[in-house]
Amino acid sequence: MHYSAKSLCSDKRFGRKKALAKQRASGKKPNFEVIKDALAAALERRAFPEGQVILERPIAEIFKTSRAPVRRALAELHEEGKLFKFEGRGYKTDNSDIILREEIRPETLGLDDEAQTSAPAEASIIDDVYRATKRSTSIAMTFGQFRIRSEKHSQHFGVSRTISREILGKLMDEGLVGKDSTGHWITGPLTARDVKQDFETRRLLEPYSLETCGPLIPVELLEQMKLRLQEALARTPEDKNPSLLETIEADLHQRCHSFNPNKKIAKFINQSLTPLVVGLVFSDAVRASVEKPGLREHLTIIESLIAGKHSEASEHLHDHLLNAETRTLERMKSLSVIPEPSLPNYLIKIS
């Protein structure tokens, strides 16, 4: 898949002055102006608690865009005296001595789901590139260690190097990508020892987190998760939907935990999810309903949450993680005899 760089961003930092003028001429606001207006309105109505810190990445994720337009919006608000610098990273919403790092939610900025999903085309393209990069690096890491050439990555997708770096940085936060001693981007290898350590971490944190945040998860969201599981269970091996399986894994192991008030726990869990790639790669490589046992376990957990049985859901999750570890280690053995698939040219095998 190759995208024209001209369609990606109207911000001056990407050198798109003509695109910016064209966007304004069409009556459509550039990304940074949309973000700036939303933040300015929230500041004016005092939507932020005293001492709130604002960082680029969380705002970029809310608007589903790169950090460049967020950076410009924050800088302009600072120049206008609406945001304040301090000794730490980012900006503060006031010049008090208080430093507060609470999560900023879309509703704080006066946004609803429709407002977020109607973001400019850049956001959709970046999301597509992120998903494709995640899938390729996930496959690669199960077959050894690979260097990720960021310049080849940006050329492959037709995006700027800034966007490439942001995408790779996000994958680093998820534990899928790292850097070697010389500063080069790398992925893999995923070893049995890594898998065991990640599952040990998850068994300690995930059940506790789910019991804590279970009462905070909207039932409507849980019902949507249940429908996705039922759809996946009804599919045949020939009718697999990898994107659906990825969404289902994220439902239980990321979205549910995002409601935990303790964001450090959610972060540690998120960094221990690397073993999930083994199931997805194996599912792609073997035409069999290998994911069905795991899906049924997911369904039992989600149904317990819907019924308000949070302790029961936590116990089911602990059992699911034990079973998932066994399945993952077995699948890693099977993958060791499967021929290495063709990978994009930005992935260079090292070992």
From TrEMBL:
Keywords: DNA-binding, Transcription, Transcription regulation. This is Transcriptional regulator, GntR family. InterPro entries: GntR_C, TF_FadR/GntR_C, Tscrpt_reg_HTH_GntR, WH-like_DNA-bd_sf, WH_DNA-bd_sf. Residues 29-96 form the HTH gntR-type domain. The keyword Transcription applies. One of its GO terms (molecular function) is DNA-binding transcription factor activity. Pfam families: FCD (PF07729), GntR (PF00392). The lineage of its organism: Bacteria, Pseudomonadati, Pseudomonadota, Gammaproteobacteria, Pseudomonadales. The keyword Calcium does not apply.
